[in-house]
Amino acid sequence: MTPADMESRIVRYGDLRPCKTAFIDAHTPGSDTKENFTIIGGGVSESPDQHVHIAIPHGFNIGAAGQPPRCRNSLHSHRTAEVFFVLSGRWRFFWGRRGTAGEVVLEKGDIFNIPTGIFRGFENIGTDYGMIMAILGGDDAGGGVIWAPQVIEDARDHGLVLSERGKLYDTKAGQALPDGVRPMPLLTEEELDGYPEPEAADVVPRHVARYWDLVALADRRPAKVIGEHGKLRDRPGFEVDLVTRTSATDAMHRHDRPSVLMPVTGHWRVTWTGGEAVLAPGDTMSVPETVDHAAVPAMSGEAALYHIVGTDDPAGPTWNG
Question: What is the C-alpha separation between 176 and 47, in angstroms, rounded?
Fold first, then answer.
């Protein structure tokens, strides 16, 4: 592929286009300053204003959330995997019907494969604007977001109504549900009973991996982070590896499906027949399955990137094998 063709598959951090009205809590105080990004795939945004940078199906979606200090993302659930790693800032993740069942604090590079079937939220508890990168299972990301009932009720009080089709309407801007379209129904108490309330001791050891632990594991070869044999054992329809300076190789290789490179630290030189590009933290690169390529650090110093590739496993509930 030509450099121009490959450059079209690189989303630079500085070129990310945010959506500030992506979800139902966009007007709710405490959540109204967040920015959402859809980088690869259709994502789960409920707003027509959401920009999609790369629409090519990969078997998974890549997105991001940017939030100033103390901004919160409201409690929700997904039917497929939701994996976050911290690009910048300090983040508190919490879960449960009211967000009180458990919590964990993540720092730069840490990764959290949140169990499916539980309500989860997160907030930036750092002192600066922070960014977390997200991987969502499946090309349709499980069909959307399932909101805790109180989130829908709070949003309605601030003018946003979600239709049963998953589209947002702003009543304060004069919008209304079309004729024949009902609002999204609230989950019943019986349905809510099906959402577990696990404690942190049951979630963190199996679903959180710390960056520096992964760096140590990646001393000689890339660390298997998420996968059947990963540190976080799961088969959500994709695998995640961490590649570091000491485990990177300049040997050309390819995959049988598109793969994604996401630097956490350092600058990375990606080469392929006919060209090369340098990636910085926050950049996202989709490498076609037909392209032989290699990625190595471009400068001295700390360097690590997450590598994601789809698998034949169905995108679905977190694997408990």
Answer: 15
How far is the C-alpha of 288 from the C-alpha of 311, rounded, in Å?
15
CATH superfamily for domain 14-208: Jelly Rolls (2.60.120.10)
Q: Is the dihedral of CA 87, 91, 97, 102 positive or negative?
A: positive
Q: How far apart are CA 80 and CA 262, in angstroms?
A: 21
- What pTM was estimated for this model as a whole? 0.95
Choose among 102, 138, 146, 150: nearest CA to 122: 102
Sort residue 212 into left (φ over 0), alpha (ψ -120 to 50) or beta. Answer: alpha
In tens, the pLDDT along 291-308 reads 999 999 999 999 999 999
Task: Please report, for residues 16, 106, 160, 233, the alpha-carbon distance to residue 66 in angstroms, rounded to integers and kept in the order given.
Answer: 11, 15, 21, 28
pLDDT tops 60 at residue 321: no
Contacts 24+ apart (CB under 8 A), 14-20: 15/53, 16/53, 16/64, 16/282, 17/51, 17/53, 18/66, 19/45, 19/47, 19/49, 19/50, 19/51
Q: Within a 10 A sphere around the Cβ of 312, how many other Cβ atoms?
A: 9
Does domain 211-310 correspond to CATH entry 3.30.930.10?
no
Residue with tokens 């590009």: 277
Confidence of residue 101 (pLDDT cuts 50, 70, 90): very high
Residue with tokens 């630079």: 12
pLDDT digits 0-9 by tens, 205-248? 999 999 999 999 999 999 999 999 999 999 999 999 999 999 99
Q: Which amino acid is at 167?
A: K
Separation of alpha carbons 228 and 234, rounded Å = 5
CATH 2.60.120.10 placement within the chain: 14-208, 211-310
Given a cut of 60, whether residue 75 has pLDDT beyond it is: yes
